[in-house]
Amino acid sequence: MNTEMQGPHRFDLFSSPSEVETAARAALAGYREDLARFEREGGEPRVWMPTLRLAIKSAERILASGLEDNIIVRDEEADLRCDKMAELSRALNRADLAVGHLDSGDGPDAAAALRGDVRIGYHTEVDDTDQPFCLFAPFDYDPTKRYPLMVRLHGMWYPEIEEDGWCIQSYEWDREFVRYAPRGGFIELYPYGRLNEGYRDAGLRDVLDTMALAEEFFSIDLDRVYIMGSSMGAAGAWRIAAEHRERFAAAAFVVGIYDQALAGKLRDLPVMFHYGEKDAPERVSSPQETAELLRGMGATVEVVAHPDSGHRIETTDYQLSYYRFFARHRRG
User: Fold this and answer.
1) Strand, helix or coil at 106?
2) DSSP assignment, residue 286?
3) Which of 76, 85, 194, 281 could make an SS bond with 11 (beta carbons 3.0 to 4.6 A apart)?
């Protein structure tokens, strides 16, 4: 269930595009007035003001792309589709959520009440910008219990959509991470990482900062923190796990390219590799070779092949496998 569809804005594919645009622009005008008011009054700066600004930006980008056609990018390499009506509803509902918290004077810790799939923002001092991230919190979350945290890093996106940032990411994340996949009682974190920068520099800082936020908002078992990624995200997860080994209990890497010079730093971290047998060789390094290197160092390694998949793997058994893998491992 997507909690972002529970707000006051509920457009769907059967809605009239012209009527939706009129209603959405009226709502946006109100949220812009709210934003100006909170800027004058000094609204909560870490989470709710960034969330409001990013939600307004997302809705503006969707409207600017036109509501008649759900195809965002179409060329020889890219053909991204989305349900613009649903995405517009989500963006406006995020704005409404942020306004409610800002009006109530809530601090960033109010994010602990969020459930299901949510997209919010935070303000980073690294370069004084608002950056988005996604969270999933189980609907039966109990703050008296301690939960595992899974950090998942997205892969590279088409350069044609870079300028859309926060807007397009919501479409692509839904597709890449299979909304409604079995969740296994984890708190899940999906950092943005500055799009295609490979989770270096400011992108790395975003990963570590949003991890700190998730650990601040929710009751996290620090002995059950896991990292994984796909493609560019796999390479980023490999590097982050190596450089911050003390943070993680296990890691999973999907269709990635791995710097084997870092393998020695991962020899005591349980790892899982996934790859598609139909993937293009230039897009992925050999998980079997990397796995054997780690096994030679005494590492715990699992390798899973997907015969019918290429560079994108979206099967339910794939989703189940890494949740089960993580559930078997604790730090130390």
Assistant:
1) coil
2) -
3) 85
pTM above 0.70, yes or no: yes
- Please list the alpha-helical segments (H only) found in the chain: 17-41, 48-65, 84-104, 166-176, 202-217, 232-243, 287-296, 316-327
pLDDT (tens digit, 9 = 90+) per residue, 145-196? Answer: 999 999 999 887 765 555 554 454 443 444 444 455 667 799 999 998 887 8
73 Cα distance to chain centroid: 21
Tokens representing residue 331 in the block: 């730090």
- Please give the Cα distance from 9 to 294 (Å, whole number): 50
Tokens 């708190």, located at residue: 187
C-beta contacts of 221-224 below 8 A and 24+ residues apart: 221/146, 221/147, 221/148, 221/149, 222/331, 223/249, 223/330, 223/331, 223/332, 224/146, 224/147, 224/148, 224/149, 224/249, 224/326, 224/329, 224/330, 224/331
d(CA 180, CA 22): 31
User: Count of residues for the chain?
Assistant: 332
